[in-house]
Design goal:
41% helix, alpha/beta, 8 strands, 18% strand, 241 residues, binds pyridoxal-5'-phosphate, globular
């Protein structure tokens, strides 16, 4: 990384932190109530380390293989590491003991696989349940009407700790469309919170990315996952003229 790249990264991080803080205030929250997760996919260990030096406290990866490679290179030292991507049950074993939170538990089957692996390692794994809020057939995640049953079944597992919900709304051309999904998610979050399930703590509502994180925070998110606004465009996002 050049000195210039390092400076630009630092500036982008400060700008995102400031925008998160302002959105928090608009939502009637304190800036420190919002957890900023840097989605670091396709950014190498050096860039991840630079981001941590510049103030990033939580990193989120969405591919197991990439996470393991960067983990070996001590990319995440000094930060909290979370998993935010699609997860196959046969890869769960690589994450236990490395990630503090698995955000993307979109089925009871996956939750059970995590419980089994966590039990083997004698740890209690924090998870979020991923909700398919847009009811998209191509997307993983629980439908709203499946949540109660999933919580009832997964909250029985002593090696799991449900800490909240995560959602990725459909790609929308209008931000107002996403706002309605975010608001609906917040309502679901509050409903579950009110039901007070044993062994479940509704601490985190994870939604909002580069294009819509301020809206998400205004609608009740307290965890946002931001990649592009922090690291710049990923290689495949750069469209040549
Ligand atoms: C990449 C990614 C993000 C961040 O996306 P940006 O639009 O680059 O901010 C958030 N959540 C998940 C699950 C991701 O894979």
């Amino acid at each position: 990384m050049t000195e210039q790249e390092n400076m630009e990264l630092t500036e982008r991080i400060q700008s995102v932190q400031e925008r998160v803080a302002q959105a928090a205030l608009r939502a009637g929250k304190k800036p420190e109530d919002i957890i900023l997760v840097a989605a670091s996919k396709m950014n190498d260990a050096e860039r991840v380390r630079a981001a941590i030096s510049a103030g990033i406290k939580v990193c989120g990866e969405n591919r197991v293989q990439e996470l393991l490679e960067k983990y070996e290179q001590h990319a995440y030292d000094g930060a909290d590491l979370q998993f935010i991507g699609t997860l196959q049950t046969n890869k769960v074993k690589y994450l236990i003991g490395k990630v503090s939170l698995i955000q993307s538990v979109g089925s009871v089957h996956l939750g059970e696989a995590i419980a089994k692996e966590a039990a083997k390692h004698n740890v209690r794994q924090d998870i979020l349940l991923e909700v398919n809020i847009g009811r998209e057939t191509a997307k993983s995640g629980l439908l709203i009407e499946e949540l109660d049953d999933a919580i009832a079944r997964l909250s029985e597992k002593p090696s799991l700790h449900i800490r909240g919900l995560m959602a990725i709304p459909p790609i929308a051309d209008e931000i107002s469309k996403n706002a309605s999904y975010f608001t609906e998610m917040h309502q679901v979050f509050v409903d579950i919170l009110t039901k007070k399930y044993d062994n479940v703590n509704m601490d985190y509502l994870s939604m909002g990315m580069t294009n819509d994180f301020e809206t998400a925070i205004e609608c009740g998110a307290n965890m946002v996952r931001i990649g592009t606004a922090i690291f710049g465009a990923r290689p495949y996002q750069i469209v040549s003229p």
